[in-house]
From TrEMBL:
GO BP terms in the entry: arginine metabolic process
One Pfam assignment: Arginase
Catalytic activity: L-arginine + H2O = urea + L-ornithine
Pathway(s) of this molecule: Nitrogen metabolism; urea cycle; L-ornithine and urea from L-arginine: step 1/1
UniProt remark on cofactor binding: Binds 2 manganese ions per subunit.
Keyword Transmembrane helix found: no
Protein name, as recorded: Arginase
Enzyme Commission number(s): 3.5.3.1
The entry's keywords: Arginine metabolism, Hydrolase, Manganese, Metal-binding
Family indicated by similarity: Belongs to the arginase family.
PROSITE patterns linked to this entry: ARGINASE_1, ARGINASE_2
GO CC, any one term: cytosol
EC class name: hydrolase
Length: 323
């Protein structure tokens, strides 16, 4: 069977957006994730699957020193995260507009503010499948950690925004004001793999009736049914473009140990791959994120395993395992 991608031009092209960025959380090293994945041979692997692969080096993000980026409310590094994600939105949007499939390698998950905004700039009706142990939908009010990688979906769904950060930034635009015009409707978001959701996030998921499939539902119905249930909620007639945002910590720590916020009881190797394979098979994928690989955590064997599994998930999402 020949699996065709509906929205991607032929010959099918994937554009790797390497984002060595860690400003959305506090552990150093997650910025090395994309470098390790590319060094592990990802470009050649994707060419081996028949893709034209564009990769012209990792992004260079100009640091904003902490001195010029004090917290706003509880938010840490708001100016830096805002600036980087804005740049990422532009790049991802440009690739999508050319009919290529942007593959963003993180880096921490705050980057998804950029990737999803970029996708929406080209495909305003896109839906998001968010595979993660965490809901990443804390607002400026509910966040305990102040780490913006736990908040991208609050900004994308406009639960948080520049307006909630006040309007005084020394004459500079308030961080995240570039996102003011971006709105991901909560009915376009579905989660798979959740198991560590903060109390305030649970309230948000309930109040906005967001499709959330936790490990409990995966145990109960099996991953095959859960992916269809998620698609039924956000893409009932299987016609809208899909953005896949995959946080490697969705996988069980025994499968992907090198990540900053591991939570036990996660997806097996096959469950993670099944999600990717099935989304590819729909023909509706338009963008992929693979986030939170942190090669500075755990020993060399664990790092090698996590990087390898990250590459393998990407290959599965780009058609490797389908016959
Ligand atoms: N992308 C991630 N790994 N996010 C973890 C978020 C953890 C926690 N919920 C927080 O707000 O800080
Ligand atoms: Mn996570
Ligand atoms: Mn995440």
């Amino acid at each position: 069977m020949n699996h065709k991608l509906r929205f991607i031009a032929e010959p099918k092209t994937v554009s790797i957006v390497g984002c060595p960025f860690s400003g959305g959380q506090h552990r150093v090293g997650v910025d090395k994730g994309p470098i390790h994945m590319v060094n592990a041979g990802l470009v050649e692997q994707l060419r081996g699957l028949g893709w034209i692969v564009e990769f012209d080096g990792h992004h260079q993000f100009e640091d904003i020193s902490a001195e010029f980026d004090p917290p706003i409310g509880k938010l840490k590094n708001p100016r830096f995260v805002s600036k980087v994600t804005q740049a990422v939105a532009q790049v991802v949007g440009d690739h999508a507009t050319r009919g290529s499939l942007p593959l963003t390698l993180g880096g921490d998950h705050s980057l998804a503010m950029g990737t999803i905004a970029g996708t929406l700039s080209r495909y305003s009706d896109a839906c998001v499948i968010w595979v993660d142990a965490h809901a990443d939908i804390n607002t400026h009010e509910t966040t305990d950690s102040g780490n913006i990688h736990g908040m991208p979906l609050a900004f994308l769904t406009s639960l948080s925004g520049s307006k909630s950060l006040g309007n005084n930034n020394g004459g500079q635009p308030v961080p995240f004001s570039w996102l003011d015009s971006v709105h991901l409707h909560p009915s376009r978001l579905a989660y798979i793999g959740l198991r560590d959701v903060d109390q305030g996030e649970k309230t948000i998921l309930r109040e906005h009736n967001i499709a959330a499939f936790s490990m409990h539902e995966i145990d109960r119905y099996g991953i095959g049914s859960v992916v269809e249930m998620a698609l039924d909620r956000v893409n009932p007639d299987r016609s809208k473009p899909i953005h896949l945002s995959f946080d490697v910590d969705a996988l069980d720590p025994s499968v992907a140990p090198s990540t900053g916020t591991p939570v036990r009881g996660g997806l097996t190797f096959r469950e993670g791959h099944y999600i990717c394979e099935r989304l590819y098979e729909t023909g509706l994928l338009v963008a992929i994120d693979l986030m939170e690989v942190n090669p500075s955590l755990r020993d060399a064997a664990d790092v090698q395993q996590t990087v390898a599994v990250g590459c393998s998930l990407v290959r599965a999402a780009l058609g490797e395992t389908l016959l």
